[in-house]
Amino acid sequence: MFARPLARTARAARCSARRLASSTASTASSGFATRATIAAVGAAVVVGTAYTFLPHAHADASHTTKHGERIITLEELGKHWQAGSLWIAVDGKVYDVSEFANVHPGGARILLENGGRDTTKLFNAIHPPNTIRKYAKEVPCVGVIDPEELAALASQRTAEDDRISAAREALFGVDSVVALSDFERYAESLLPLHAWAYYSTGADTEGALAENAAIFKRLFFRPRIMRDVREVDTSTQFLGVKSSIPVYVAPTARNGLGQPEGEVAVTRGAGATGVFQVLSHYASRSLEEVKAAACEGQQIGWQVYLNPDRERSREAIEEAVAAGAHSIWITADTVTLGKRETERRLNAEANPAPHGKPLSRERQRFGVHDANMSWSDIAFVRKHAPGLPVVIKGVGAWEDVVLAYKYGADAVVISNHGGRQLDFAQPPLKVLYEVSKNAPQVLHRKDFGIFLDGGVRHGTDVLKALCLGATAVGMGRPFIYAATGWGSDGVEKAVEILEEEIAIGMQLLGVKTVDELGPQYLDTSKI
């Protein structure tokens, strides 16, 4: 009654057959040492290297390999750690990213924090294969790491590596997980400190992050009784895609930091349970890899950050279309990066600036996202993704929901980016409530969907959003945490938990289908 086991078994069988027919790239897992300063705080950042901890080969920087490549020692690499002279090493090769830092899709900060080091583990955890090859003209290779030092580097283990290994060995089976909060609780011990900081923190004081979840506790149900609810149906359909529950996997970046398979593991779990997934522009795995792992007929949306150089955006969108994207989700709330104090502080403590380094007076730019977006960009995206649904993600005011409909978007996502952008931006549920009061004409339309993400942690939260008029809700962090601990099985379990909670809630509310949900089942007086 709750889980529709026969349908789920059939989906799982189809997915298993598809998996046997495809191979999936995995993240490189070479370990390496950290700087002494990082070791002092528990080896919090996995990308540090410690030339002082490794045997010195004393290879002269002018030496070359038999192929004519310059041999670079770790000591030489370590001299290039600041703006204007910034090198990183990945998979044994050294790259000059001095100029590229200004246009790096992830911003200059992460390159500056890791300059002069071997960043193989971090790089491979957050980038799809062939990323460097894609930017070969902009990121020149200046040489290779000395082979002897590279071998010693690969054999290094940090205290953090040992901590995470011990936590994984102690992890219980996924069937013992009771609620989505369990995934989060155990993920913290399984993640490198910098990864936990990236996933879990919010902007500034984290007021928006906290309120996203807190507001659901101020919205109460008005259940109806004496109704036939022996059988309930939790399924729905949006953007032409059927879903087992009114939940989709929201786009989240860098899934590979916690799970070697990255987003591929999420795809497998979503496919086995009949849930729609949206892949992030900054995913650890490419859309091609994710599509190869998908079940037959499984649809994958793709989220994009528009670049000031529209030619770059055009190329990215057309690549996504060619790879089989179901829809294009334009993120509009990241014209610049929010100040994430907790994440910055943890990284600063683990990777302090060298003693005596002068004050940097130049604000680190985050210029790869367009700060001059307009509603005409909907037409721009639609031109290069003909026939695909176009969704605007990051709407924070009811007036912009109306404008998105006016300018031809197929749907919006009411969202404050998980509380990671503008601190004290209204929680998405409050914005949805304002839509229901001020613009009810855009709700429940066949030609326009209204999604919500942020703060959803229980099936009852999903029901509250649907009662206010949401088409479906997106969830990001819970699926990251589920995959971190248990891979695709964790994702399946997360969907199973939600499906049960939604079904129980529907029965106790007195409804048989999600279409029956409405404001009559809510007390909104405390919002």
TrEMBL record:
Cytochrome b5 heme-binding domain boundaries: 69-146
Cofactors (names): FMN
* Keyword Oxidoreductase attributed: yes
Source organism, top-level taxon:
Eukaryota
Residue ranges of domain FMN hydroxy acid dehydrogenase in the record: 172-527
Q: Cross-referenced Gene3D superfamilies, in alphabetical order?
A: Aldolase class I (3.20.20.70), Cytochrome b5-like heme/steroid binding domain (3.10.120.10)
Protein name, per record: L-mandelate dehydrogenase
Task: Please tell me the species this chain comes from.
Answer: Cutaneotrichosporon spelunceum
Higher taxonomy: Eukaryota, Fungi, Dikarya, Basidiomycota, Agaricomycotina
